[in-house]
Every structure is written in structure tokens, then in C-alpha cells.
Specification:
It is built from 5 helices and 6 strands. It is α+β, with helices and mostly antiparallel strands. It has one domain: Orthogonal Bundle (Arc Repressor Mutant, subunit A), CATH 1.10.10.10. The strands form 2 sheets. Strands 1-3-2 form a 3-stranded antiparallel sheet. A hairpin with a 5-residue loop joins strand 2 and strand 3. The protein is globular and about 45 Å long. The mean pLDDT is about 90. Keywords: DNA-binding, Iron, Metal-binding, Repressor, Transcription, Transcription regulation, Zinc. One of its GO terms (molecular function) is zinc ion binding. This is Transcriptional repressor.
Length: about 150
């Protein structure tokens, strides 16, 4: 098997987070990195028939706990997962970016490059993170709507 730069990166990522380099873990990382949207466990199950539901659940749980992926909810309340930035750790996720839910195709996008407003909480509140959602049409669905 030829090792790609991605495979080497994923192996390094698993080493960094003290996780065993197993074929299912490497496949999940590869699948998630190939997508431009957050992905639910049921969608991953449909794409990866050779990994059973329990194994996939355990992989996603371990990845979230270690700061490799973060969870974001879609319009139906379903958990979706996306790769974290390289500065996320086991103790703190840095997923404070805009999560965009497309109302047409139902995809969830992590918009990492958006400038977000400062959040000033009242005295006594200690934030440990925050999530900001926006709803609307993604570029692909916007183009389809204009053509109609």
C-alpha cells in the first residue's frame, strides 16, 4: 500500500493524541477530510460499510474527546462531526467559528475564516466555548434557486 501525505499526517495525528493507528481510524479521518461539510454518524455508516456501528461510535467518541473532531448539530438536531483545527486539544476545542446550516440540502458547513463578534457575558459567567449557527442557502443551493 502506498502511503500518501494524508495517511502520514493522519498517523502523526493519532500518535500526537496517543491513539493506536488502526485501519478504521485512518479510514474515518480520510473520509472526514475528503468532505467539505460536517458528517453525521449515519452518513458515515452509509459510506463505510466495513466499519460496524459500535466501532464507528467509539472512533467518533475518542476523536471528539481528544480534540481531533468537533460536534455540530444540524437543523434536525442530529450530531454532525467535522475535523478540528490543529490547535484543538484534549482539554479545549477551538471550534468557535460560524456553523452554517443549509435549509435546502441540509448540509452543515464550518466557516472557519469568518470574523466573529466578541461576546461579552455578564459578570460571573465563565465561557468554556460557544457555537454560532446561521441558516440559509449554501452557494450550490443559491445557484439552483436563481435558475428557477
Amino acid at each position: 500500500m502506498i502511503q500518501t501525505r494524508d495517511t502520514q499526517y493522519f498517523e502523526h495525528l493519532l500518535d500526537k493524541h496517543r491513539l493506536k493507528k488502526t485501519a478504521p481510524r485512518l479510514r474515518v479521518l480520510s473520509m472526514m477530510s475528503s468532505r467539505n461539510t460536517a458528517t453525521s454518524q449515519p452518513d458515515l455508516e452509509n459510506l463505510m460499510h466495513d466499519i460496524d456501528r459500535v466501532t464507528l461510535y467509539r472512533i467518533l467518541s475518542a476523536f471528539e474527546e481528544k480534540g481531533i473532531i468537533h460536534k455540530v448539530f444540524d437543523l434536525n438536531g442530529t450530531a454532525n462531526y467535522a475535523l478540528c483545527s490543529s490547535n484543538c486539544t484534549e482539554h479545549h476545542h477551538h471550534d468557535e467559528h460560524l456553523h452554517f446550516n443549509c435549509v435546502q440540502c441540509k448540509n452543515v458547513y464550518c466557516l472557519n475564516d469568518m470574523n466573529l463578534p466578541a461576546i461579552n457575558l455578564p459578570a460571573g459567567f465563565e465561557p468554556q466555548g460557544f457555537t454560532i449557527y446561521a441558516n440559509g442557502l449554501c452557494p450550490k443551493c443559491s445557484k439552483k434557486a436563481v435558475k428557477k
